[in-house]
Design brief:
Elements: H1 2-21, H2 38-67, H3 72-134, H4 140-145, H5 150-225, H6 230-254, H7 256-260, E1 277-278, E2 283-286, E3 293-296, E4 299-302, E5 308-310, E6 315-323, E7 327-333, E8 338-345, E9 347-348, E10 355-356, E11 361-364, E12 375-382, E13 385-387, E14 399-402, E15 405-408
Parallel strand pairs: 1-14
Antiparallel strand pairs: 2-3, 4-12, 5-11, 6-7, 6-10, 7-8, 8-12, 9-11, 12-13, 14-15
Length: about 400
Amino acid sequence: MKNRKRTCRRALAFLMALVFLLPLGPAAVIPVSAKVTQEEIDALKSNANQLSQQKKELQSQLKQVQAEKADARQQKNLIEKQMNVIQSEIDNIADQIAKYQGLIGQKEQELAETEEKERAQYELFCQRIRAMEEEGEISYWSILFSSSDFSDLLDNFMMIEEIIDYDNSIMESLLALQEQIEAEKAELEQAKAGEEAAKKEQEAARQELKSQQAEVDKLIGQISAKEDELEAAEAALRKAADAANAEIKRKEKELAAQIAAVVSESGFMWPLTGYNTLSSLFGSRTHPVTGRPNNHTGIDIPAPGGTKILAAKSGVVITSTYNNSYGNYVVVSHSDGTSTLYAHMSRRNASEGQTVKQGATIGYVGTTGSSTGNHLHFEVRVNGNRVDPVNYFKDMTLYARSGGVTKKLNH
């Protein structure tokens, strides 16, 4: 066996010399078709650049506001808008990483296939050498000199030429496969490097988001301590809420046909799994930001930031946006004349015009807008009029916390 391997190596070296001395035909090329392309990744990077530009513009506005010593609430709103853009950057990079992983998987498969072809070609070459060895390794010159006459010499020469051409074709294919392996290894390393760079960029964006959240928390403290601009703030919040209401009514009319086509469930699903204690009930209360008495249009359900918010019923998303009152909020309209609103999200996970099923994740708990702590502000409307959401959860055990005391609700 060892002698055969040495024979294969000697023959390979000999034929490589022949390949460089004799004319060669075109090298065999193995076509490569990839489902994931670099163009797709480049398109995501282009989108990421646009998000980066949006973030810079918001940062410029924020610096201007800070230079003018504007109120903390305006700074908070600008930072939250910037945080939305950073979150979009993180999501974009996650898509890039997924594409890179798909590309790496394909390149690894292509490389394995090419290496298998090289192994098979090398085995074919060794079989050829073993055949020559078993036949006595007669040299080409011996064959020529053994010719009995000129005609026999020509016949032998043509036979030798055919043998050399066959051996050359094996060598050319083997060399082409080796070149392709090197190229595919380089492409694989490039894809892995791209993935690693994307992961580092994503981690940097996450750290930036964390830093921005810390700034928001600081500003919340400043807002809570301010008393001199409460009247103006309250008016601004009412104006933002009124604008949201007008937009909800307009969208319900615009999407009426789509809403009617989605069959809504008879009952509502609780939007926060595992959290059933309310910090604020429907009706009269003291506003947590302005400190003024006001009419609370829904219920507040505290939960950790990032907790999934679930659609209470199947329906159509008629609003998914941000304003100074509700922060990041989503409104889902249902075919039975009701609609549900979910406010102060850290991040929205539903788009306007999207059909959602009951229990679908439409966002995540946060403290954006007119809020001083992580919670979900949840509203139910019947034919456009707000009603107490608690009335739709008679069979559920709910609690209310006020002044540090928690009590079971009788509803």
